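ok so I'm stuck.
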Amino acid sequence: MDFSFSEEQQMLQDMTERFVAGRYGFEARERIRASAAGWSPDLWRELGELGLLALAVPEADGGIDAGPVGTMLVARAMGAGLLLEPFIASAVVATTAVARCPAGEGRDALLAAMLAGEQLVVPLDEVLPTPGTIAATQEDTGWRLRGRKPVVYHAPIADVLLVAAHHDGRTALFAVPRTATGVEIESFRTLDDAVAGRVTLDLVVGMDACLSTDAGEALGEAFDRGLAAFCADALGSMERALQATLEYARSRVQFGVPIGRFQALQHRLADMLVQLEQARSMTYLATSSLDEADITDRRAALSGAKALVGQAARAIAQESVQLHGGMGMTDELDVSHHFRRLTAFELRHGSTDAHLRAWREHSLGT
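replied:
not stuck anymore, here's the structure
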């Protein structure tokens, strides 16, 4: 399998890395993290101007259509830079789902605003249906949406919530303004410093709020692309955590020599590198599977990737902190923030055990 990137893909990766290095350094990120909002709307609009919010959207709908590999390269750079903005949730999952809905005035206007960074649209479910259920009932004047989701990443900062609701045995998709009467959000911060909320819905929306009455396939594709992108985000974070740990091992002197000279630490660093390369291979496999026509093969590759990348993320995160000593958990070092991001990744989007079971079912039919 050829893992080399095209000239266009390499340019996309280089542009994203320059943006992260120039506009999202550690001190800049700390200012954003400490702010009341917990994200930067200005930087989000800059991402729109660069076209990075349009990667997953076909050119016919005003997107770039960078393909799974282009999205992977950008997500990896975002993970390395510890981006707090909801790139994957909005620019991968939400845009994919909306773009796959039937064209119409409301859908087209919403998608255009999303790609420009003018509207932040966040799905209630990022990769898998999460605990809590939303039900949709059609009434004379519109649709009644009722239900609760206990954890929705980025909900408090969204302009629009993308709501998947059960209706007559199918999944309908709605665009609901966050500030609409009947939308209640109790906000909190997560382990990985994201803004999240407990969302309760009990409202009637207009007929035009329904983007699709049968969005099962669109959401399935969006969830698959989101899971592959989250693996890429974790890969970028692991790469940066290992790099920081190697630099520390070369500079930290104990008993007159750098600690990286000690054989026991060299073995641990080598193990981290092996796990990183395995995670890289599985991330590439997950990305390439998105073009797979057979949904069983695609889901097997994605679940296998999430399980292995999740295991590697936890191991590398923990070793990075331990090899830094007590200072590894301080906010002043970026390795502590990679630890939080990677730990959250392993716990989210389906547990390792759940994805191992899914991989077995998809691969072996058992």
